[in-house]
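Give me the fold.
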Amino acid sequence: MITKQPTRTLAFEEKDEELVSKLAADIGCYYSKANDRTYNLNQFDAAGQRERGVFAWVHKKEKNCLWVSTRIAWVEQARTMVMVGRNKSGLNCFPKQDRHAEDSLSLDIREDYDKSVRLLTLINKAVNG
């Protein structure tokens, strides 16, 4: 099922950084502000490595709603990594078909925060080793 995500994003407020910080801590990664409307989730501390290691982007949809986007190719790479591994329990965190654009996947972290964190953790490991 293809879902249409908003084309307009809102600017982040200071309190939103706390949510992004919690998400990054739960995933085990770093975050950095890309612009007024986007945060990067990054494998590396952003000092000096602006784009390297970025595996997802956090956007603000509504006043209290953040959504995360990542590349569908990275989702498939993570799914493959789980399938060839011994622990197949990670497969239940992969969404069915929630694509917002042809090459990306959007996650509404309000729906199932823990599942989103598990998926983003797997994508981070698959993309950044």
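The CA atoms of residues 61 and 68 lie 10 Å apart.
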